[in-house]
């Protein structure tokens, strides 16, 4: 550590001699679920960040960038506030990043202006967060954004009547509302809407009800992870698949790290999302290789990594624009309208909402040549903003 | 669950109380001096400490088994938060609202929990907190549901001290509140009412034979406990400006219980020590190694059971007694 | 009618899964008087072993189940000897603290060894896929679970009520000092009962993995459900646990089918009503000490 600091200082002196700006160590505080039930998502944050640093170096414009990870296992605003405050006041971070859960982001936004620190959100996906502070930038997605294109896509596939089934919490309700707006707008009918409690262990009765509803398809949203497994199993076991009832969902349900567990039962599920690990582009190949190396077990790579990777890109641009000096407003101003080719495809930061504008893909779970389960992209909807914000 | 410590501490206790309060104030001051950059964390400790104290009133002094205490804490937090969002900004008034809501929730919980004893009682308390959690989630238009209740902007304390990034106001407000509550509780647990509660814990039959209503006494304690927990919740809501579903979760209740048993139940100091040690270790270890701290916390709990079953405060008093016993 | 039948089948299957996993906890809590919150942790260990044996080693389902039971017992015995034995006579709160600590350790270690992703236990062809039972289709596995549940209930009842070991165990529970004075090695009886409970946990974890998927947080995620079910039934009573599982399974499943939006309200309201009406559990034993 010391030697690195010394090196950095020496480098800084050299830069001074050359007449360039003095180099400083820029600290970035990353808050994420690195332990607990959502540790996998936190691990993906870390993989995305480390992939970025492996590919682009650990300094920006001569300023060394130091990452400080802090663990926030579950949604806990009190703890989020305490950690963010400590990062800002004690560790003197110039940037905050990460944040998996909405309430945690909402607990951090009130201190940003006074702290003079921008917050780059890698995941927390409720539209309203962006309105709480002008210093928030988001590189992930919202459910309004990923679900809206699904309405039209469903109609194109001959689906007319849909029943929605979502987990009863913020993101689930967002997904339901987005679908209930997009699908009728495209000419379909939502016959029934079910909100299931978060702690549901047996999905069979719910899917039996779906089957009895007479809908052509079910639109589902559950948080990624264990419940997905039971839900997809019940979809197969209760004979919905055999009866030809289509399965539509936001891509959270078929995140790549869950696919091996879902197995053949997931084949043919149609989802819409902003990123598939199997996305075919040169940028993505490089990213996936680096991120897989960073995460250790390639099967664990999933969507939060891309939010983190692009988040680090945005933070780097901010550091570049401010020359390593702490100036949150200037930093955020600098990335408004920023457009680049991300591993997920072309993206930009909407200058009005500071939320990422991106291509949403329609995908189907399939097996690739080597027998791995992937989300195969079958249609793309470029340039999607967040409909939850543009009211 | 019988303990054979002497019930009534005789004679003049208040000089000791003054020393105790001074020690808490001193510890708070030391926290402020040593960790001036972590005041939001210290405020969180105080907020949770109020929850653990309230739990001690039920478990340690009345022998009531509960894993639902966060229902009371959450009731206070949400009541204060909703009041704040709807225009009540005076922090003192918000704490009062929290206390009131917690007290009412305590009465309700008492009415349910006192229908059983032991394990079934524990299960009732779990069902109770889960129902609260479901209600808070369902009433998303009022509580914000799983996104959290935000937009809480408390006004300056006494019209003078604003709540800011550094959290000084919140910390000193919290410390002051804790000292007040602690002083009041020290008095209550030694009052005839407090002694009756302890008597009920040891032998309810005998208390009943003395002509004292067991149920009304315990219900009163539930209301008091609820008020204390509610104040803790309100403090958290004011300091964080967001209330999340975690404040009415089973996990928070379970953590509070762990902290209490860690510190040693049946003593107000034990509740404080347990909270500080548990949250301190969690905070430090998770900052040093955010990826594997859970195992270490587990090992710590097992070690406490094996080597200090009466809690850390028990270890301390034993050590003091031994030291005094020496010639 | 069809709907009623359909709900009944789902309810029965779910109730049976709960029963298989929870009955071991009922044994530790009712007969051994230990509030073992780490029970889910042992069920999860069983699930991990079975997943490893069936998926990574490629052995059959039966071998996986057997390996899970034996492996879990092998892990549990030293824990019983060095940890649980120290808290048998302690207050419940102390037991809660210790077993939560053990749960944390189990979660941390599994997370470290196996990683945070879901683990599945591949089913044999005969058990996977839907079966048509006339009025609807149902997973073959669910039928298997129902049979397993009934078999466990019957076997356990015979063991505790009809064998010499059962008599010793019940005697040791009611009066340990007197029983050991009569020449029964109570420590040994306890150790065997504990191993039995852990074996049942592992069996439940494996068989129930289709409902409650195996992942590191299994141990905490379902802790409350298990504890609630056992207490409603009355700790230590097999028929009580069976009744509680079927009743709560029925309430849960019916609630979820008819009013899915309020599923959890029904479950916990039912718990409150039942506990208030039967404070000792549906068919609970008299508690030897309180």
Draw up the topology in text:
The complex is a heterotrimer of chains A (391), B (327) and C (290).
Chain A: H1 2-17, E1 26-32, H2 39-56, E2 59-60, E3 63-71, H3 77-89, E4 95-98, H4 102-108, H5 112-115, E5 119-121, E6 136-138, H6 143-156, E7 161-167, H7 170-185, E8 189-196, H8 204-212, E9 217-221, H9 226-237, E10 246-250, H10 259-262, E11 270-273, H11 282-295, H12 304-322, H13 328-335, E12 339-342, E13 345-349, E14 356-367, E15 373-384
Parallel strand pairs in A: 1-3, 1-4, 4-5, 5-6, 7-8, 7-9, 9-10, 10-11
Antiparallel strand pairs in A: 2-3, 11-14, 12-13, 13-14, 14-15
Helix pairs in contact in A: 2-11, 2-12, 3-4, 6-7, 12-13
Chain B: H1 14-34, H2 39-62, H3 70-85, H4 91-113, H5 118-138, H6 140-143, E1 149-150, H7 168-190, H8 192-202, H9 204-209, H10 214-240, E2 242-243, H11 250-263, H12 268-288, H13 293-307, H14 311-325
Antiparallel strand pairs in B: 1-2
Chain C: H1 2-31, H2 39-56, H3 61-82, H4 92-114, E1 130-132, E2 137-139, H5 140-162, H6 164-174, H7 176-181, H8 186-207, H9 218-221, H10 223-233, H11 238-258, H12 263-277
Helix pairs in contact in C: 1-5, 1-8, 1-10, 1-11, 2-3, 2-4, 2-8, 3-8, 5-6, 6-8, 10-11, 11-12
Characterization of the model:
The complex is a heterotrimer of chains A (391), B (327) and C (290). Chain A is of the alpha/beta class and 391 residues long. Chain A has 2 domains: 2-141 and 279-354, 3-Layer(aba) Sandwich (Rossmann fold), CATH 3.40.50; 144-273 and 360-384, Rossmann fold, CATH 3.40.50.2300. Chain A is built from 13 helices and 15 strands. In chain A, strands 7, 8, 9, 10, 11, 12, 13, 14 and 15 form a 9-stranded mixed β-sheet that branches. In chain A, strands 2-3-1-4-5-6 form a 6-stranded mixed β-sheet, with helices on both faces. In chain A, strand 14 (356-367) and strand 15 form a beta hairpin. With 327 residues, chain B is mostly helical. Chain B has one domain (14-249). Chain C is mainly α and 290 residues long. Chain C starts with a helix and ends in a 13-residue tail after the last helix. Chain C has a single domain (2-277), classed as ABC transporter involved in vitamin B12 uptake, BtuC. The chains are: A alpha/beta (391), B mainly alpha (327), C mainly alpha (290).
């Amino acid at each position: 550590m010391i030697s690195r600091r010394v090196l950095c200082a020496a480098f800084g002196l050299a830069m001074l001699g050359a007449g360039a700006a003095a180099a400083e160590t820029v600290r970035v505080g990353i808050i994420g679920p690195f332990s607990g039930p959502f540790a996998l998502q936190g691990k993906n944050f870390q993989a995305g960040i480390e992939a970025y640093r492996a590919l682009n170096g650990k300094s920006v414009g001569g300023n060394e960038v130091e990452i400080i990870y802090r663990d926030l296992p579950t949604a806990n605003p009190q703890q989020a506030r305490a950690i963010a405050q400590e990062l800002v006041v004690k560790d003197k971070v110039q940037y905050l990043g990460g944040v998996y859960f909405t309430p945690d982001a909402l607990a951090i936004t009130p201190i940003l202006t006074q702290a003079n620190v921008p917050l780059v959100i890698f995941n927390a996906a409720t539209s309203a967060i962006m309105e709480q502070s002008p210093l928030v930038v988001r590189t992930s997605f919202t459910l309004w954004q990923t679900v809206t294109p699904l309405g039209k896509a469903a109609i194109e596939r001959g689906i007319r009547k849909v029943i929605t089934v979502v987990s009863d919490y913020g993101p689930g309700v967002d997904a339901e509302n987005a679908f209930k707006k997009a699908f009728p707008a495209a000419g379909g009918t939502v016959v029934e809407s079910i909100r299931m409690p978060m702690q549901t262990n047996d999905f069979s009765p719910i899917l039996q009800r779906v089957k009895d509803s007479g809908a052509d398809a079910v639109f589902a949203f559950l948080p990624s992870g264990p419940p997905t497994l039971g839900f997809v199993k019940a979809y197969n076991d209760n004979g919905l698949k055999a009866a030809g009832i289509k399965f539509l969902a936001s891509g959270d349900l078929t995140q790549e790290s869950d696919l091996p567990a879902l197995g053949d039962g997931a084949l043919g599920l149609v989802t819409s999302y902003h990123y598939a690990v199997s996305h075919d582009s040169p940028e993505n190949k490089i990213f996936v290789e680096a991120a897989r190396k960073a995460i250790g077990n390639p099967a664990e790579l999933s969507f939060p990594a891309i939010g983190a990777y692009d988040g680090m890109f945005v933070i780097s641009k901010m550091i570049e624009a401010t020359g390593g000096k702490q100036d949150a407003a200037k930093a955020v101003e600098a990335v408004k309208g920023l457009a680049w080719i991300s591993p997920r495809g072309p993206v930009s930061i909407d200058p009005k909402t500071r939320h990422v504008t991106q291509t949403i893909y329609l995908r189907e779970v399939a097996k690739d040549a080597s027998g791995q389960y992937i989300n195969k992209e079958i249609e793309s909807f470029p340039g999607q903003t967040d409909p939850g914000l543009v009211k | 669950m019988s303990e054979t410590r002497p019930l009534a501490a005789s004679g003049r206790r208040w000089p000791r109380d003054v020393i105790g309060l001074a020690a808490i104030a001193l510890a708070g001051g030391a926290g402020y001096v040593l960790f001036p950059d972590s005041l939001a964390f210290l405020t969180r400790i105080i907020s949770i400490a109020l929850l653990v104290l309230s739990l001690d009133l039920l478990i340690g002094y009345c022998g009531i088994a509960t894993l639902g205490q966060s229902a009371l804490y959450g009731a206070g937090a949400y009541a204060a938060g909703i009041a704040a969002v709807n225009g009540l900004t005076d922090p003192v008034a918000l704490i009062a609202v929290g206390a009131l809501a917690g007290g009412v929730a305590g009465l309700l919980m008492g009415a349910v929990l006192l229908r059983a004893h032991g394990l079934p009682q524990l299960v009732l308390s779990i069902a109770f907190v889960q129902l609260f959690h479901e209600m808070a989630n369902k009433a998303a238009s009022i509580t914000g549901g799983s996104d959290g209740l935000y937009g809480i902007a408390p006004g300056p304390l006494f019209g003078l001290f604003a709540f800011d990034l550094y959290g000084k106001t919140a910390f000193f407000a919290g410390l002051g509140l804790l000292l007040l509550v602690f002083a009041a509780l020290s008095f209550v647990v030694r009052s005839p009412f407090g002694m009756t509660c302890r008597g009920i814990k040891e032998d309810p039959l005998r208390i009943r034979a003395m002509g004292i209503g067991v149920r009304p006494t315990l219900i009163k304690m539930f209301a008091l406990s609820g008020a204390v927990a509610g104040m803790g919740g309100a403090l958290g809501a004011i300091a964080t400006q967001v209330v999340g579903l975690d404040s009415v979760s089973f996990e928070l209740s379970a953590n509070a219980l762990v902290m209490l048993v860690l510190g040693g139940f049946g003593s107000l100091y034990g509740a404080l020590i347990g909270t500080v040690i548990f949250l301190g270790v969690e905070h430090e270890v998770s900052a040093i190694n955010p990826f594997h701290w859970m195992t270490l916390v587990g090992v710590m709990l097992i070690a406490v059971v094996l080597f200090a079953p009466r809690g850390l405060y028990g270890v301390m008093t034993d050590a003091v007694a031994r030291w005094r016993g020496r010639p | 009618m069809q709907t009623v039948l359909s709900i009944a089948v789902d309810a029965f299957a779910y109730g049976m899964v709960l029963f298989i996993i929870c009955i071991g906890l009922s044994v530790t809590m009712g007969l051994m008087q230990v509030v073992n919150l780490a029970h889910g942790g042992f069920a999860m260990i069983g699930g991990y072993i079975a997943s490893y044996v069936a998926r990574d080693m490629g052995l059959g389902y039966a071998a996986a189940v057997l390996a899970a039971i034996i492996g879990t017992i092998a892990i549990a015995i030293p824990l019983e000897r060095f940890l649980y034995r120290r808290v048998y006579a302690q207050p419940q709160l102390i037991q809660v603290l210790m077993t939560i600590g053990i749960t944390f350790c189990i979660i941390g270690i599994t997370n470290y060894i196996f990683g945070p992703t879901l683990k599945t236990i591949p089913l044999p062809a005969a058990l996977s896929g839907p079966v048509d039972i006339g009025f609807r289709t149902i997973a073959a596995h669910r039928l298997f679970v129902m049979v397993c549940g009934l078999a466990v209930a019957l076997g356990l009842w015979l063991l505790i009520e009809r064998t010499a070991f059962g008599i010793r165990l019940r005697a040791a529970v009611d009066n340990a000092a007197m029983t050991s004075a009569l020449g029964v090695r109570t420590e040994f009886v306890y150790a065997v009962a504990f191993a039995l409970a852990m074996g049942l946990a592992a069996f439940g974890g494996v068989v129930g993995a289709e409902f409650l998927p195996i992942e590191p947080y299994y141990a905490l995620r379902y802790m409350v459900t298990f504890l609630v079910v056992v207490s409603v039934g009355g700790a230590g009573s097999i028929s009580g646990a069976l009744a509680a599982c079927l009743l709560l399974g029925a309430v849960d499943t019916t609630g979820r089918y008819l009013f899915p939006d309020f599923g959890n309200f029904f479950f916990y309201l039912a718990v409150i009503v039942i506990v208030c009406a039967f404070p000792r559990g549906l068919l609970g034993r008299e508690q030897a000490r309180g």
